[in-house]
Design a protein that fits this description.
- There is one protein chain.
- The protein is globular.
- The strands form 3 sheets. A 4-stranded antiparallel beta sheet has the order 1-8-3-6. A 4-stranded antiparallel beta sheet has the order 2-7-4-5.
- The N and C termini lie far apart (57 Å).
- The protein is α+β, with helices and mostly antiparallel strands.
- It is built from 18 helices and 11 strands.
- It folds into 3 domains: 147 residues, Sandwich (Jelly Rolls), CATH 2.60.120; 88 residues, Arc Repressor Mutant, subunit A (Orthogonal Bundle), CATH 1.10.10; 239 residues.
- Helix 6 packs across helix 8, helix 11 runs parallel beside helix 15 and helix 13 runs antiparallel to helix 14.
Length: 493
């Protein structure tokens, strides 16, 4: 039997192998760290460790979000860090102290790997490559801390500090000359405490940035417009925020209606939503995620109806309207089937999701041909990959239904191959467009993380845990690909 199936640390090994800090280390170094590690699931509002506790483990966050806080004189609590990207928590504490100086607790459900601190410190001493990586990570953290302090003490406005925080949460996506979406997993109270303002001030500054056209706020999603154009070192607010969106009066009649690329993107969103809804239903029915998934499902339903109504209001050509009518006819049946959360309905919902995908894809392809411009083709291809990120995740959850296993086993390799083929085509098309090249590199990296999450059998660590990991990586992939769709859409204008 393959030794991988007998590896008691397989889940940790797969996670650590794919992480930026430890991935690619010599096999012997990685194996020693894996042997001294364990997987930790942290619920929202639960404490991982408290200030004053002896440091016994170092923790690497892989998905979810946590906060680190310290107690101030007088009893107040100051949030010093909100972490929602892959990161070694409290790196300064871990390598310089014997006791934690901060308290770490979950904001959302989080998945971490804990490594015995004695083993980690010993490996840093004896592995040149690991020590170099730690030094680099510490240096980056020091630069971020210095910049953070500068923002608080040398004249940056509240709006600027908020924007810097949003860019920090965007991580590697912040440098792209395109729209970047940040999900605010923490409450306004926690975020306000992190950047040194009251929740009321946070709301005012969000409105200021929104009025300036710098961000678009959609619930907990904040869309950053042209993040790469921001001069984060300038203290002049107007200079930093002076790239507002066009005033409505400046838009051409065509832009007021819908550009060719925007039409393809809008049709493609129906395609995407058909898969996201089925995926979310499966997460509820299988008990992977319940309360959060129900909220998301209702939002997806509203998004589908809103997109459908907008397309219906365009009244383009008879052929376009005929294809749209097929979707409108199928939609009530699809929604009715998903109104029941009973697992026995999985076979029918899977079939309807594939049928809805087929008719929505037909509409999108027709919109692509209707546009009459080559750029619209790439909006469609990027949109296909956006949809495929969710379709593949859908396959992962629906394989729990016995009647679907054979079908999914046959489809999965084809769909993964299509994603990679589409990505290659987009990379070729992105030549001489630096922002697109950069974004597609991000997509490629996240695609590999998603594939790694799909492949290992984590059943010994819990099917639910594995499913949540797949959903989290699929969601990250979706956000990455969605940015590429928007960038290709801009080229079509």
């Amino acid at each position: 039997m393959n030794s991988r199936f007998n590896d008691p640390h397989r889940a940790q090994r797969d996670l650590l192998r794919g992480c930026e800090l430890l991935g690619g280390l010599p096999p012997d170094v990685l194996s020693e760290l894996v042997a001294a590690s364990r997987i930790v699931e942290l619920s929202a509002n639960r404490t991982l460790y408290e200030a004053g506790e002896l440091i016994r483990e170092a923790h690497i966050l892989f998905n979810g979000s946590v906060k680190r806080a310290v107690s101030m004189p007088g009893g107040a609590t100051r949030v010093i860090e909100i972490v929602q990207n892959e990161q070694l928590l409290g790196m300064g504490e871990v390598f310089s102290a014997s006791h934690y100086a901060s308290t770490c607790s979950g904001i959302t459900h989080a998945l971490l790997v804990a490594i015995d601190i004695r083993k980690l410190r010993d490996m840093v001493l004896h592995s040149h490559e690991l020590s170099c990586r730690i030094i680099t990570a510490l240096a980056r953290r020091q630069c971020a801390t210095e910049f953070d302090a500068t923002g608080f003490h040398y004249g940056l406005t509240g709006a600027q500090r908020l924007l810097d925080y949003l860019l920090e949460q965007a991580g590697e996506r912040a440098g792209l000359a395109g729209e970047t979406t940040v999900l605010l997993k923490a409450s306004k109270k926690v975020i306000a405490a992190r950047i040194g303002m009251t929740p009321e001030s946070l709301s005012r500054n969000l409105r200021e940035l929104s009025d300036q056209g710098v961000i678009v706020v959609d619930g907990r999603n904040v869309h950053i417009q042209n993040a790469a154009l921001l001069d984060t070192g300038s203290g002049n607010t107007r200079q930093r925020l002076n790239f507002s969106r066009k005033r409505k009066s400046d838009a051409s009649p065509l832009e007021k209606a819908l550009s060719s690329g925007a039409l393809v993107n809008l049709c493609g969103r129906l395609r995407l939503l058909s898969q996201r809804m089925a995926l979310t239903w499966a997460a509820i029915a299988s008990g992977v995620v319940t309360s959060q998934a129900r909220i998301r499902f209702r939002q997806l339903e509203k998004d589908f109806v809103r997109n459908l109504e907008r397309l219906d209001g365009l009244d383009l050509t008879p052929d376009f309207n005929a294809r749209l009518a097929v979707i409108k006819d199928l939609w009530p049946r699809y929604l009715e089937a998903m109104s029941l959360e009973a697992a026995e309905g999985g076979d029918r919902i899977f079939a309807l999701s594939e049928q809805m995908l087929e008719v929505a894809d037909s509409l999108t392809l027709f919109a692509t041909r209707l546009s009459g411009i080559p750029e619209a083709h790439y909006v469609n291809v990027a949109g296909r990959n956006r949809m495929l990120s969710q379709r593949i995740a859908k396959f992962f959850l629906f394989r729990e239904w016995p009647k679907l296993q054979e079908t999914i086993a046959g489809l999965s390799p084809q769909v993964c191959a299509e994603f990679e083929s589409n990505l290659s085509e987009l990379v070729q098309a992105a030549d001489r467009q630096p922002e697109l090249v950069a974004q597609l590199e991000v997509v490629a990296k996240q695609w590999q993380k998603f594939i790694r999450a799909l492949c290992p059998d984590l059943s010994h660590a819990g099917k639910t845990k594995h499913a949540r990991l797949v959903l989290a990586e699929g969601e990250r992939l979706l956000r990455c690909v969605d940015t590429s769709v928007k960038l290709f859409e801009r080229l079509s204008k």
